[in-house]
Amino acid sequence: MTKMTARGFANPYNAQGPTNPKYYANREELLSTFIHNVIAVSESEGITRPINISVMGSWGMGKTSTLLKFRDMIKSSSGNAQIFSAYVSLSPASCTDSETFFVYLMESVFRQYESTVALPQKVLDFIREELNVFEKWRIAKISMNPEIERRERLPLRAVNFNETMLRFWEKLQCGGVKLAVIMLDDIHYALLGQGNARLLYDLRTAMQTLSAADTQYMFIITGPVDLYPVIRDKAEPFTRLFERFDLKPFDIEGTRQLIERPLFTECIRLEIDEAVVYRIYQITGGHPYFLTLAMRDILDMKREGRLTLARFERLRPELIRHFARIKFRDDLGRASNTERKLLFQMAVFSSAVAPSELDGSGTVRLLDRLVKKELVVKVARGKYRLYNPLFREYLKNARLTE
Ligand SMILES: Nc1ncnc2c1ncn2[C@@H]1O[C@H](COP(=O)(O)OP(=O)(O)O)[C@@H](O)[C@H]1O
Ligand SMILES: [Mg+2]
Asked: Is 56 a pocket residue for ligand 1 (Cβ < 6 Å)?
């Protein structure tokens, strides 16, 4: 019997948020680079230094899922290593200026942390004191009252990231912690605020100072693939501090894993023919978000037994309609009229196109705008394609009904 829950049928595919680490598929090289370094650092008494990792990928490619997987691996695959880790989710509001950013960063580290060992009282006291300082800083900032700022000698001390993290490391080390992993999800928000380059520059300097002081912090950042050219102009050496991994769409093997792992883990008796796996791979382009969405719908429509290609083809129109409802309509809504015309033109081509193959003027500029909106992908010098084959299919149909 397939597993039932109180509210009916169990469906482990969740497209609305990051994946549960136990279903995480693919990306072996990235995972092993991470865990090998984690183990080496924890076991070498400080000789092996932590690497910093940047995980780059467009929307829905699995950046947040990867950070949650890292966090899970620290607990489940690092032996008995003593590791502190913190996950920090950035937003535009947390990155308005350097001071706000660092206070938010430290507050998140001191609140949203996990540790594989019980932290000694000294560390807990330190955390409590620092959180107090931030609280006062916040009050001072909101009230905008220079009197309070002067009286409390704030915010100077509150925002000294280097100094705070240095002292924090000393406390952690006394408590037996060998490594502290700090994960910053969606670092590109740091480029939105005023003086944004400055903010990354400050972070870079802080990371270097902390490393030079022999602390064992590992920084992990995520962001879109085109983040680097943006940063390079502004804080070039920032990029050199990280080992970079690009999250690409899954290949057929990764696709199979994403499809099968949740079924296997939850003992769901749905057998999916190889031809269907391949077909799903083709129509989603191996995009993890669309794969997850497709599987969620498929499992809702067929809960057990064998899924043949013929049966799948009958479910397919419903899948496309669903994708349209929750994603493609929004996508199209983000394009201007001229951009839209270009998208419809591109949908006619089954492979990548050069701007010269498309009608209209200013095509290159429009295409670059569509790349920024993540609706079009630049595949090679001068060649572009729609970001997903399903989006193409949707555009072909939408065009007919316009
Ligand atoms: N490696 C993976 N294994 C299984 N599912 C994944 C994987 N990567 C991403 N997904 C799925 O894709 C969707 C988007 O993932 P998410 O981590 O939120 O992406 P991002 O943070 O890059 O926007 C989610 O539904 C998630 O379940
Ligand atoms: Mg994310």
From this structure: no
